[in-house]
Design brief:
It contains two helices and 15 strands. By secondary structure, it is mainly β.
């Protein structure tokens, strides 16, 4: 499997936590708010989805945008989180055309999770966490390009919004008592019903991983 720069950075950031003993101890307490911001990459699953009775196998490509989240500590070791980002834009590729783009779409995947910090209260200089929740993805500005219009004989493409399961894993490494750096990875179950000229042609499974490198501030 190809290792992207985002994945290399994620691995490096997680590795920092293994030597975090020399850093200041980062403590999150009940009632704290944590704001994290940085870059996020949406990497859809690599498999194609068969639509239109097998006439087309479609998938979407990756994109990188600004990503942010806000978390509220409900207890000393559990938080509720909202993940947001600037709009992602993806080309839609068809395997029958050698992976060529047949169109594009924009989307936003706001995600709400509840996270658990399993090592809270251990006096460690890093904060790993895991979580699960719900993803809502809204699509807009769907377009067929000239290749897509010729291949499908259609003019209009639309994608339905999606609601699905989400999971996360991440780590924060402190710079001082308020500031930190970190990385996180999310999985989102995203499936959208596609339509050409208003006619349903099937479901496209996107199911991406979302990788984020961030700077955090707690207060």
């Amino acid at each position: 499997m190809k290792v992207t720069p985002i994945r290399q950075s994620l691995i490096a950031a997680l590795s920092i936590s293994a030597i975090g003993a020399a850093a200041p101890v980062l403590a999150y307490d009940k009632g704290d708010t944590i704001v994290r911001g940085g870059i996020a990459s949406v990497v859809p699953g690599g498999s194609y989805s068969s639509v239109a009775g097998g006439a087309f196998d479609l998938r979407v490509d990756s994109d990188i945008q600004a990503g942010a989240s806000i978390s509220y500590m409900m207890t000393d070791n559990m938080s509720v989180n909202l993940l947001a980002a600037t709009p992602f834009e993806h080309d839609i590729e068809a395997s029958q055309l050698g992976g060529s783009s047949v169109g594009s779409t924009k989307h936003l995947p706001p995600t709400v999770t509840v996270s658990w910090f399993p090592l809270a209260g251990q006096g460690l200089a890093f904060k790993p966490y895991v979580g699960a929740g719900v993803n809502y993805t809204t699509f807009w500005d769907e377009k067929l390009n000239s290749t897509g219009k010729t291949a499908t004989g259609a003019q209009d493409l639309s994608l339905d919004d999606s609601v699905g399961f989400a999971a996360q894993v991440g780590v924060d490494v402190p710079l001082d008592e308020n500031w930190s750096v970190g990385a996180a990875a999310y999985y989102a179950d995203i499936e959208t019903d596609a339509k050409l000229n208003g006619a349903d042609i099937g479901t496209v499974e996107i199911d991406p991983m979302i990788y984020r490198l961030h700077v955090g501030y707690s207060f």
